[in-house]
Amino acid sequence: MKRIAIGLVSAMALASCGGGEDAGNNTAAAPAAPVAGVSAPSGTQWVDTVVKTPEGGFRMGNPDAAIKLIEYGSRTCGHCANFAITGMEPLKAYIATGKVSFEFRDFLLNQIDVGAALAGQCAGPATFFPILDQMFAEQQTLMSNGPKQGDPFIQQVEAMPPQQRVAAVAEKFGYLAFVQQRGVPEAQARACLADQAATEALVKAAETGQKEYNISGTPTFILNGKVLENTGTWPQVETALKAAGA
Fold first, then answer.
1. Mean pLDDT for all residues in the chain
2. What is the reported pTM?
């Protein structure tokens, strides 16, 4: 499928999907002492404790967890989808202990990611991770909705103002309908896609992450403030979690 070039933010041009797939040179750190589990407040579970962070991500789990895992991921990246499909359920077992928290931060590789992220975040923390996981599970279907070579949509969208372009691309690829089918009213979803301040916040958060961690590809994982080099699959991430004491 041909991806259309429609106003990519310059800072994102240096990153691509799949930066952490090669783990051949990954050197494991010496194992840390095991971390003690922490019970969730009565009547709750850590995997259901989700908040939006000041950095613009969404964190699942104990806010005071000793082991903090962050993923910078793109909703259009196949490697990110693979991690979500194979890794999220086993990762939740670690989160449930209160030892580990997991934060997902949307990282924009292309204009499609902007609308997908705005739509995916639209309903707030309570549905953020279910919608994210389902977007990754349906990624190939969503991406197949895009314009093919010669589609007049490509010229039409290039002539649109930036925020209108975001909404048009999200609708074309099916992200608008996707969140509607999962309980987000159409008017609310369209308002999220038209939100210029939210768009600017997404771009700024991705630029800040790239500057701070020198992100060259997605997914990129940060464990207790340090980038996990050459780590992009669940077995690699799990090895790092165990080495940190999970």
1. 91
2. 0.91
